[in-house]
């Protein structure tokens, strides 16, 4: 009986210990995304001067520069040296031998063995994003893909949109010259515009007011309506009866497009469209 009692006790003890282990595993907290810091990749890095600036030689400041440390809540002096393992002056030990940071023909290639210089340039230097950037081929390739996809979308849209919308878009871009263009010329220039500035082209195509502005401009050109000399009102061309007052600091045709959406403006818009046809 004693042996059985011992086994039961051992079984109970095992069960209790197992339960404790399970409880401990459940209480383990996974680190949140905000707690996981990006890792620093050991690799060769290339830096380039901004603005297409490619002098034979250009030097960045390597001393007398500062970095605001968010964790320490203080400004820390930076210095690039050849004999220290840090760029932070407050962490340096002994004599510091200064070294120049020099770009040649607009570029600076830093091998992976020079981690101190890489971290200074990629993380801490105050001229980062102002005078120079780090070349990041993967990110640049992704950006180029986005641009190419936007160009493709714009070109496809330019090829398929109806001629009235093409006219409205091009009138917003080049003004009244559109009125003298043939359909072929208009279609050609629309596609050229879409290729050169796909972002603006797509914005104009998707702007619900672009067609309303176009109708307003055509109505003025046809003398159906007029804009007063002081640019403060639109009136009927036939009798100078006032249609609307242009709000202060608003573009006249943008204001007219917004007014066309009102109850009174919709009637006028419908009348103008009939007269234009």
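-> sequence recovered:
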């Amino acid at each position: 009986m004693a042996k059985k009692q011992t086994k039961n006790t051992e079984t109970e003890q095992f069960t209790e210990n197992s339960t404790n282990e399970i409880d401990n595993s459940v209480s383990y907290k996974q680190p949140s995304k905000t707690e996981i810091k990006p890792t620093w990749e050991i690799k060769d890095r290339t830096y380039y001067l901004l603005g297409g600036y490619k002098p034979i030689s250009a030097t960045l400041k390597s001393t007398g520069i500062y970095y605001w440390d968010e964790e320490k809540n203080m400004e820390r002096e930076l210095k690039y040296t050849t004999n220290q393992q840090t760029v932070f002056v407050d962490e340096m030990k002994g004599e510091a031998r200064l070294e120049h940071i020099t770009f040649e023909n607009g570029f600076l290639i830093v091998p992976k063995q020079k981690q101190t210089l890489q971290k200074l340039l990629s993380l801490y230097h105050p001229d980062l994003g102002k005078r120079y950037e780090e070349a990041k081929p993967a990110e640049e390739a992704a950006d180029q893909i986005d641009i190419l996809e936007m160009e493709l979308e714009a070109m496809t849209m330019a090829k398929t949109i109806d001629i009235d919308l093409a006219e409205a878009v091009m009138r917003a871009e080049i003004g009244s010259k559109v009125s003298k263009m043939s359909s072929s010329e208009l279609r050609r220039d629309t596609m050229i515009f879409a290729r050169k500035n796909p972002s603006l082209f797509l914005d104009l195509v998707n702007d619900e007011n672009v067609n309303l502005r176009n109708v307003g401009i055509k109505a003025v050109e046809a003398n159906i309506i007029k804009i007063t000399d002081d640019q403060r009102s639109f009136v009927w061309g036939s009798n100078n009866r006032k249609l609307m007052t242009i709000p202060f600091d608003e573009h006249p045709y943008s204001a007219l497009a917004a007014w066309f959406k009102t109850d009174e403006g919709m009637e006028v818009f419908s009348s103008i469209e009939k007269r234009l046809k």
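Residues 2-26 form the longest helix (25 residues).
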